Amino acid sequence: MSNSVDLISTQFEIDKVKSKFDTLNQEIDKQIYTSVMEERLRVNKISISKKIKEPVENAWNAFISMMLQELQTDLTMADLKIDSYFHTKTNKQIFHIIDFEQYKKISILWFSNSQRLIRTIIFKSLQNNTVTKVRYIDLIKGKESVANYLERKALKTYVKKQTVAFKISILKLKLSLSNLTPRKKYLINKKIKKLTK
Question: Do residues 169 and 141 make contact, with C-beta atoms less than 8 angstroms apart?
């Protein structure tokens, strides 16, 4: 049994959250527009990948640990299982782990306002496990198409923010794992600083 206070663990709580998520999923998946184009505009996808010169096990452990910290949760690797629910310490945002395969993939689903977000991180071992390819995918589906100027601008800002956040995560991963020279560390920190401006 997990000691994490952020893990939703009682059957009563799980059933309650599952029922809420099922209702929200049905609302999001319900067809709203007769136009196929309008329906497609309800779905937006971000897909980015980067490589790091580390074995997949090292890259996975460090990246997932960073991700759990960023989500502001006290969960550990042992808590990560398919179909588990957890929440953040601050705003109690609830997340659902919909896919999990150690050293390969994790997918987390949550809802924000009138949108469903699914974040998937895929790890692929390359070159006899000396290099790991990390792929980040965000799939966002809203109740409405992104039609007006303000909605398009908000989506563009979100895409930019998430792309920068992933690049920073990879740079931090390199800093934490690689045996770098002081010069290389300085250059990576400089890149991080530039991206955070």
Answer: no
Spatial CA neighbour of 7 closest among 88, 61, 65: 88
**DSSP-derived secondary structure for 130-164:** TEEEEEEEEEEEESS---SHHHHHHHHHHHHHHHH
* CA–CA gap between residue 99 and residue 136 (Å, rounded): 14
Q: What pLDDT sits at residue 144?
A: 79
CA 40, CA 12: separation in Å to the nearest integer? 36
Count Cα atoms within 13 angstroms, Cβ side, for 164. Answer: 13
Edge-to-edge strands of the sheet including 43-52?
Answer: 7-8, 85-87, 94-101, 105-112, 115-126, 131-142, 43-52
Q: Report the 10 Å Cβ neighbour count for 41.
A: 17
Comparing CA positions, the residue from 51, 104, 54 lying closest to residue 82 is: 104
Taking each helix axis from N to C end, the angle separating 56-70 and 149-177, rounded to the nearest 10 degrees, works out to 130
CA torsion angle 137 143 145 148 (round to 10): -110
Pick from 36-40, 146-150, 185-189: least confident: 146-150
Model confidence at 126, pLDDT cuts 50, 70, 90, reads: very high
